[in-house]
Amino acid sequence: MPSRSHSRPRRIPHEQNPGGSAPQASFIDEKNELMELALRTLSPRDREVLDRFYVREEPAEEICAL
Question: Which of the chain's termini has less CB crowding within 10 Å, N or C?
Answer without folding.
Answer: N
